[in-house]
Please model this.
Amino acid sequence: MTRIGRSELDVLPLSLGGNVFGWTADRDESFAILDAFHAGGGDFIDTADAYSAFAPGNSGGESETLIGEWLASRKPQNVVVATKVSRHPDFLGLSAGNVRAAAEASLTRLGVETIDLYYAHYDDPDTPLEEAVGAFADLVTDGLVRYTALSNFTTDRIRSWISLAQAGGGDLPVALQPHYNLVHRREVEQETIPLAEEFDLGLVPYYGLAKGFLTGKYRSADVSGQTSPRAKGAAEYATPEGLAVIDALEAIGTAHGASIAATALAWLRAQPAVVAPIASASRVDQVADLLAGARLELTASEIAELDRVSAWAAEG
Model:
């Protein structure tokens, strides 16, 4: 178990991504995935109110609704649910009124009294930062949210948010959600990790498997015949440099009897300030690999080798 920043939230160091629920995973498959994750010791679920408004026929909130139905049906103990605000078509931005209304809508869909971890999903340049900070602080004061967090904010804006929260006596964020994995390293390692260590913020990286590339499934930029909606994005990493990372993951994983995906997640877990990588599963048979990634311990030399073969992703 690992603690999320300064919070009292202790979780298995893997967060199940809920972006696929109601999109590439229907209700039955979503329930099966959640059941398998929880049965395997998983207790940290990540979603957003906007999931999956981007899918044809959806309007947003589908993922929260399915998770809420699963929570009501299974009544699992000690499950931590994180969700986000600012991108739902009906609740765009971080104005105080919008944040309050969106949180209340998320609570209804999830069927819970309090959101464990509530992210500002994206920055909102049209709303004064003081207003957004105050809105999140009020949610904590009023018991709608336990802890706050930030996703996709620049380090300058994160620092400003923290300064405003400190000045106003409000709760400080406990977590950040950046784009971070073995083939996308530079910005997080040069800017975000030092900030996280300074303020004791836990990192919960998204795209932990690089849209599926770090599963080893995509060995070519040619995605003809692939049915996954993420295939094109994953295959963009299928360069000679990217494939060298896959080869190293495969060799190290084989030594542990672990998959490429589990090994990639284990590397990410070993990075400074990282609490729990986010990874999603569209099928229940993918869950075991994700859970293995939460428990696999790489040696220092194995981590160094993966650092070396992916150094190109950390440069610049």
About this structure: The chain has eleven helices and twelve strands. The radius of gyration is 19 Å. Residues 20 and 290 are 15 Å apart (CA to CA). The first strand starts at residue 2 and ends at 3.
